[in-house]
Write a structure and sequence with these properties.
The complex is a heterodimer of chains A (458) and B (130). By secondary structure, chain A is α/β, with parallel strands linked by helices. Helices cover 34% and strands 14% of the residues of chain A. In chain B, the strands form two sheets. Chain B has a six-stranded antiparallel sheet with strand order 1-2-3-9-8-5. Chain B has a three-stranded antiparallel sheet with strand order 4-6-7. The termini of chain B are close together. In chain B, 37% of the residues are buried. The mean pLDDT of chain B is 93. The chains are: A alpha/beta (458), B alpha+beta (130).
Chain lengths: 458, 130
């Protein structure tokens, strides 16, 4: 049955009223050469459930079952079975904040709990009900900082090269037509992070905000206290871009430097969302109370009804697009309801202590893996800065053929970064979460030793 | 019936303008406007020293219903803003022509003032809109 509520008779009547013959005529103002040439002829015939199920299983099997040491923004973590068992119950199974939201007290309470957890994890006063993903959350944080920092007139935002290259592209795409200039900040190729002293030459210039990734794209920890203090001393707002798992063991953005960061954001995928070809994931966005009116998206508040009973409600809607139209704080005023539900359940099952243990295990496993790998001839750590659960390794053989060879042995050894960071040569970004055992790490080291010896010999 | 003081000038967008003895003007929103907007919860004031042109969206008042732009009634430079509104935006509801003033402006030279409405014209406008 087609999902169109109008009968052909009704369609004909409607066209008659507006004086148009065919539906296609409604699109006549679009030049022919711009119209899609895809016709129904190119779409293969429909399949039934049994056929499509088989096709999908066969395609999935082609991926094999490799051991994955790639991180680079998406991380494989253990997800307790209860997370998705609960998240996919009918009461929660929606992708959005509901329309007529107050009729759905359960989902509002869940979002309220989510906000409370994220505010506590980031050390900030407020959180919204989530955004689409980490990269768009960073773009929203930049737009928010530009609105909030009224002392700064420059609309220039310091964007370190240690921020995920894809995030930088997304931010550029979203802000470039809004008169905002992104100023690149270099990093130290020996330590892998921003050298706080290098900012001294920028003191006194007008910048609106500084993005501080923690850990950064290379897995290296930034000197967040010094960076935040420099920014505040120069009238610059601080945007913390953080990994939520790492936040369990690192100082939260709310405690960076003397005053703490002004905005904290990031990708929520590590909190109970499986790796699935890049999504759906979710972004989080938290801030200090003073900035709440510049925060985009939905915020759920707790209140009492006329009888004094607790209840939950969408709040601060006055600046959303259904009221402010083009002047809304953002035109992405929705959230990732289902992903947020899973993350809230994940966090409530682990608790602060559980999340801390996950983070500590990730760091420990990565340390052990790096010890094994750097013992191999021709493999070196690129940076000497402190790391969390990811690090850049440099090889004395070409990385691409090495990766291909290891992939044939069902090992995804890491993320090649030469394209974005040619100055680092044959380098790989390698990640090891709590999901990798001693045997897995040993297998990685063994296969790599073999591969490098052969590549050098040939 | 809305209160429309005789001695003030008005805009079509429901701002009022009072001429002060020192040459500056005080700007606020009318009793009619505050009544339509409802309870004020937040005010985003302009920056003193900013130069504004007539018709500029120069600040935002936010009520429980909506966040609304305030349009600058005359070109000029912002002299003073009503910082009391930061903590007590409800002053706009309680006393729109007094304690609830928004900002003062040093008007630039020019004949823009003639574009503003007298009280009786504004009274007619709001009656025609209701």
């Amino acid at each position: 049955m087609p999902f169109i509520p109008h009968t052909p008779e009704e369609v004909r009547e409607m066209l008659e009223v507006i004086g148009v013959e065919r539906i296609e005529d409604l699109f006549s103002e679009i030049p022919t050469e711009l119209r899609s040439s895809i016709t129904s002829k190119k779409i293969p015939p429909a399949m039934n459930e049994m056929e499509i199920g088989r096709l999908m299983r066969e395609r999935a099997a082609r991926d094999g079952n490799p051991l994955c040491f790639i991180g680079a923004g998406a991380y494989e973590h253990h997800i307790p079975a209860a997370v998705w068992e609960l998240a996919t119950r009918g009461e929660y199974y929606t992708a959005y904040t509901p329309y007529q939201a107050e009729a759905s007290q359960g989902i509002l309470q869940l979002l309220y709990e989510f906000q409370t957890m994220m505010a506590s994890l980031t050390g900030m006063e407020l959180s919204n009900a989530s955004l689409y993903d980490g990269a768009s959350a960073l773009a929203e944080a930049v737009l928010m900082a530009v609105r909030a920092n009224r002392k700064s007139k420059s609309r220039r935002v310091l964007m370190p090269l240690t921020v995920h290259p894809v995030y930088r592209k997304v931010v550029r795409t979203i802000v470039r037509h809004q008169g905002i200039e992104l100023v690149e900040l270099p990093y130290c190729t020996a330590c892998g992070n921003i050298v706080p002293d290098s900012l001294a030459s920028l003191s006194g210039e007008d910048f609106t905000a500084l993005v501080v990734p923690q850990p950064n794209f290379f897995g290296v920890l930034e000197e967040v206290d010094q960076l935040a203090d420099w920014a505040h001393a120069n009238g610059v707002l601080v945007i913390g871009l953080i990994n939520p798992t790492a936040a369990a063991v690192l100082a939260p953005p709310g405690e960076w430097g003397e005053q703490g960061a002004d905005i904290a954001c990031g990708e929520g995928q590590p909190l109970g969302i499986p790796l699935a070809s890049g999504g759906p994931y979710f972004g989080f966005l938290c801030c200090r109370e003073q900035l709440v009116r510049q925060m985009p998206g939905r915020i759920v508040g707790r209140t009492v009804d006329l009888d004094g009973k607790p209840g939950y409600t969408l709040t601060l809607q006055a600046r959303e697009q259904h009221i402010r139209r083009s002047k809304a704080t953002s035109n992405i005023c929705t959230n990732q309801g289902l992903m947020t539900t899973a993350a809230t359940i994940y966090l409530s099952l682990l608790g602060p202590e559980g999340l801390e243990r996950v983070a500590a295990a990730c760091h420990d496993n990565t340390r052990q893996l790096l010890e094994k790998l750097t013992a191999i001839e021709g493999v070196e750590l690129q940076f000497d800065g402190e790391f969390f659960h990811e690090a850049v390794l440099r090889f004395d053989v070409p990385v691409e053929p090495l990766l291909k060879r290891l992939a044939r042995q069902q090992l995804l050894a890491g993320y090649p970064i030469a394209e974005e960071y040619p100055e680092l040569g044959d380098a790989l970004l390698v990640c090891c979460t709590e999901t990798k055992s001693e045997a897995d790490r040993e297998r990685f080291a063994g296969l790599l030793r073999e591969a490098m010896a052969e590549m050098r010999g040939s | 019936m809305s209160n429309v003081p005789e001695e003030l000038l008005y805009t079509k967008t429901h701002e009022w303008v009072r001429q002060n003895e020192d040459g500056t003007v005080t700007v606020g929103i009318t009793d009619h406007a505050q009544d339509l907007l409802g309870d004020m919860v937040y005010v985003e004031l302009p920056e003193p020293g900013n130069s504004l042109a007539v018709g500029d969206e120069c600040m935002v008042v936010e009520s429980v219903k909506a966040a609304s732009d305030i349009y600058c009634p005359l070109s000029g430079e912002v002299v003073e803003v009503n910082i009391a509104l930061a903590d007590t935006p409800e002053l706009i509801n309680q006393d729109p022509y007094g304690e609830g003033w928004l900002f003062t402006l040093q008007p630039a030279e020019g004949g823009e003032r003639e574009e503003l409405m007298e009280a009786d014209a504004y009274q007619e406008l709001i009656e025609s809109e209701s």
